[in-house]
């Protein structure tokens, strides 16, 4: 080499480079792969793993879901959504604008939450608070229940423009997402991570009662929440606060819905389940035309066999006529 050409500098002695060379040597000893192949495979595997990890983190923690239909089914009973309450429509449900990551991902200072009904259309998740039932407001020409406006005002003042975490449980018949909802406490307890359960607050204040549906009742994943809910309701009943201080005979929201023909629980109504049970035993169902399921099955079988016989006879006649014509043409 000419004297005027300086030799290339030695590779830097960095701890990461030493670790990489050591790992490459171990892999080469275990797999008998040449170092050149390891130089290709190892960065490729590392890049693929990092990409999959980023995709997983984005989908599970950073992706914003605009409405209930966009929520993946595997999220229910496993995930919670953090967001801002933009409106309260009734005394036991509200609209949530999902803000994944909260202020850590820029919501509220870099990324603004839209305001106004037009801007929020199709961008919010309709949340139904699990385990509680509040007095019904006036809907579709039905009168409102006593104390419905007070319960609505209480929930509006409690949640509107505040951040909450909604733990997903299931969808109901109105395409709402039933959730156990929690919000940060005020003061030092809030800084330490302590939270309020919104349903429990409503029960203690007498603004709602424990949900009394015969099925589809949810109290969240935490053990003992049903007992806490019922104890809070009983305490409010004894103190006669909220709905328990009303004069006259008390009508629960469930009784109100039943009186006006409303449905409780999941989408499948109870009378449809009863009808299905009657049909399975061959009993006639009141209000339905026709015969029982057993006789209908017999008639269907007879009709099917009759059609098969007709089809077989038609095929036989066609085949015979073709054979006769062929013989005549041969002669």
From TrEMBL:
PANTHER family assigned to the protein according to its UniProt record, in alphabetical order: EBNA2 BINDING PROTEIN P100 (PTHR12302), SERINE_THREONINE-PROTEIN KINASE 31 (PTHR12302:SF3)
Gene that encodes it: LCL3
UniProt topology in membrane: Single-pass membrane protein
One MF term in the entry's GO annotations: hydrolase activity
The TNase-like domain, residue ranges: 79-246
UniProt keywords, alphabetically: Calcium, Endonuclease, Hydrolase, Membrane, Metal-binding, Mitochondrion, Nuclease, Transmembrane, Transmembrane helix
Region of interest (Disordered), ranges: 267-314
Feature: compositional bias, Basic and acidic residues: 275-285
SUPFAM superfamilies per UniProt: Staphylococcal nuclease
Gene Ontology, cellular component aspect: membrane; mitochondrion
Coiled-coil regions listed in the entry: none
Species per Swiss-Prot/TrEMBL record: Arthrobotrys conoides
Regions that span the bilayer: 40-58
Location(s) in or outside the cell: Membrane; Mitochondrion
InterPro entries: SNase_OB-fold_sf, Staphylococal_nuclease_OB-fold
Pfam family, one: SNase
Recorded family membership: Belongs to the LCL3 family.
Annotated protein name in UniProt: Probable endonuclease LCL3
Compositional bias segments (type: Low complexity): 290-299
